[in-house]
Amino acid sequence: MPTNDEVDRIVDGWSRERPDLDFSPLQVLSRVGRLARHLERARKTSFEASNLELWEFDVLSALRRAGAPYQLSPKTLLQQTLVSSGTMTNRIDRLVSRELVERRTDPDDGRGILVVMTGLGRERVDAAIRTLLVAERELLERLPKADQERLSALLRKLSLDFD
Nearest Cα to 111, choosing from 74, 68, 82, 78? Predict the structure, then answer.
């Protein structure tokens, strides 16, 4: 197994050309970025197997994690998926047209709307998460469990300020 990766080659090139700069942030964040692209490909493949787009999985998984009866307000979905109000409205419309969610009046607030996952939506998101977990395990299989846990803790520490 090679000991140098593409990031090492990039940093070496920059360090040779610009020895006046500290390229140590690239050692971490360029690897995170490259791994994110690999993860996005694995996710896209996993979701396509369940006939879902990436964004559809995001919305449906938020509803699934909410627990029965698998419903959330559009505002809560906005907060969990980090998209604009207009984007969320468009996404809900498309999910309704695919019969993966329904809009219902909020019984606690007659003016409010709830987005409710359908049985088909639940089937699709459950299948997608099973496939995704297999793919993600494969991406991490080179790291022993203890290293995975340490990496998770370090990434959590880094990401706390962003959440």
Answer: 74
